[in-house]
Amino acid sequence: MKILYLRLANYRRTEECEVRFAPTGLTVVEGPNEAGKTSLREAIAVLFEYLDSSKHQNVVAVRPVHRDAGPEIELQAESGPYVFTYFKRFHRKPETTLKVTRPNPENHTGREAHERAEAILHETIDIDLWKALSIEQGEAISQANLSKQTALSAALDKAAGGHSTDPREDSLSDKVWEEYRRYFTAGGSEKKELQETQKSERGMETEVASLERQLQALEKDIDRAAKLQLDLGRSEKQKQELEKHLAEYMKSLDEIKELETVLETAQLKLDLARKSEQAARKEKERRQELIDAVDEARQTHAKLEESSPSLVTAVKNAQEELKKAGLAETQAEKRRKEAESLLNLLRADFDYYTNKLHLELLKERKERAAQKAFLDTATGLYNHWQQLNAAEQVKSLRKELGLTQQQLAKALGVDRVTIARWETGMRKPPRMALNFMYHLLASREGGEKPNGKKKK
Question: In terms of pTM, does the model score above 0.90?
Answer without folding.
Answer: no
